[in-house]
Amino acid sequence: MIRPWAAASLAGSLVAICAGLAVAQPARAIVTGRVVDAATGEPLPGVQLTAGTTVAFTDEAGGFVLDLPPGAVTLVVEAAYVRAARVELTLAPGEQRALDVPVDVDLDTGETLEVVDTAPLVPGRTTIDARAAARQAGTGGDALKAVQDAPGVARTAAGTREIVVWGAAPQDTAILVDDVPVPALYHLGGWRSIVPTELVATLAVDRAGFATPWSGAIGGLVRVATADLPAGRAITIASDFIDTGVVATGQVGPARVAAAARASYLDRVVGEAIDPEVAERIPIPRWADAQLVAQVPLGRDRLDVLVLAAGDRLERTLPSMDPAATKSDDRAQDFARASIAWRRPLDDGEARLRAWVGVDRDDRDQRFGAVPARLHQRTRAAGARAERRTTAGPVVLLLGLDASWSHAKLARDGSLSIPTREGDLSVWGQPPGDDVASDTWSAQTGDAGVYAQADWVHRGLTVSPGLRTDAWLLTASRLTPKVGSTPGIGYQHGHVTVDPRIAATFRHGRYAVGGAAGVHHQPRRADDTSAVFGAPTLGLERAYHLTATVAVRVGAADLELTGWRRRLQDLVAREPSATPPLAATLTQDGRGRALGLELVARLRGWRGLSGWIAYGLSHSERRDHDLRPWREFEHDQTHQLTVAATWQRGRWSASTRARFATGAPRTDVVAAFWDTRAGRYQPVTGPIYGIRLPDFAQLDVRGERSLALGGTELAAFVELENVLGRANAEELVWSGDYATRGYLSGLPFLVLAGVRWTR
Description:
Structural class: mainly beta
């Protein structure tokens, strides 16, 4: 198994080699920006930007990045369908320049171009700037936590790190950091993300219909882009009631390098202030993480190295006067990723390569009295991607190959009924059955894909058809459970999938319309392939996405109305019979459907004020078998309303966040009987997910002030969460005889304060 320290050592060696290769190169400057039609706001992909011998082309969002030598530079912006424009720049060594200067062209002979930093309309996508997100109330200064408040992202229970977008299960949404897949965006409990704000540039949430280059998810896609590192040396120390972190940047020859690390003490600070009943529902873990980013210029080329590592620990014991009711939960989750990427600008486009390796460890030991629930998983993974972007007139063509592989070794002991799956008839706190079993197995997942996407632009119209074909290899080490000395027979199966996708937008003046549709696949999870606890023959799950958006710009505000629909097939679900067939505890008979409307109003900066209001109306259902009726999805929320506002003036900033969400579905208990064999009451449940928790509402506020102290900067913030002290219901609980019920409340009123020092 690849150890985390080995991955870090490999990345460090790569940085040193690359720095040595480029030691004779001068420190270069980075110029970023976006090209759009100033009259319509439509992004212009495929526009050529030339600066000396450096050539780049805007991507599908109109964005570009130029790596240029210092000194005087003339930037030429041109394409077959526009008239050339020029921008004169003078760049200092190591400078980072963001262009926001308009470039005018004769309206009679071409288009009007403007280089700006505003995001264009992309159906189903929300793009968030990291610096702005860190000032938002409710994030604790962690930019990536703003994903939880993004339009289309459902509110999940306090103490979870799940991301639920547009009726999709949490495991159906992929998380990428610089196009490298990671197991989760947040540490255990959801208190903190895995990448500090100082290393993040932007984050994008594709709720549905994401572009052709991506596969392996039938829900949404969350992409985190790391920032271009500044020249020179700097150090930032951030500390609050949750954790303390350090980010240091510097140069090793021409290479720009950043190293960061954080460690938590949440369990010793906030954990002491939370009521024991709340702590029973909301885990208070410990965590630590580390990051290494290196950006190395190699002439016209550029090499990027990324290393991520994180570890989480959680130990809980919930005592009871009845030893059979004592519960414990011990978790250990670690992961590490190391990647290296290369890119080269070409005369007609750009070429990119990326390779990555990773290792995951996930141990969970639960116990309910004498009944265990243990799952230990070790996973090794690797992947690579190659892309070539070329421009021919008004068409930008993207061709790519990618591949990924993972090998998981698993061991599980315990009841078949815990942990519960979505759709199980269960009551929170109910003791598990005594059907204890054990299994050890392994599973492999391989995917090799080829894809092509064309972006055709004509005036205000952009059409992006694409096609992706994947070859999958799925294996499991045992087709049947271990019985005596019976030799194990493995299982493997190959699948070929063809996923057509298309997106289009049209903008005229202040108005825009857009839409996207596509087919998506994802493989079964390795922990579902046990011949005892699951089914080794599970294959691929499938989804059909459809979304349409209408947008209008009114003064400093953007209004968007989006309709969406998602249809899911071949979902992994529990076999409905009381005595499932051998090695078939799980099936792929599950179905899902979800649809909704979403209205978003964004304020693009007015007298220092920015923010958004997002309202979503949706309905999502599941059916575990064709003979079973449709039911509510566990994470279904009919109404969602989020109001977020940030005001900044000079070194002062203030923000607020208000959230409302319909309560999550739960299963009612209609009666109970005394189980003489077990010596306890057993519940009789009503329709699955037939009732709901009370509606959720919360208000948070935040204030921040920064000061210049000599050559350093000090910023202090205070964040008040759940200002109204509302006891929001997070779970439905019952008395021992199930005669009365109550609610387990979420987080109380919390005060978070911290400082950030930069030199």
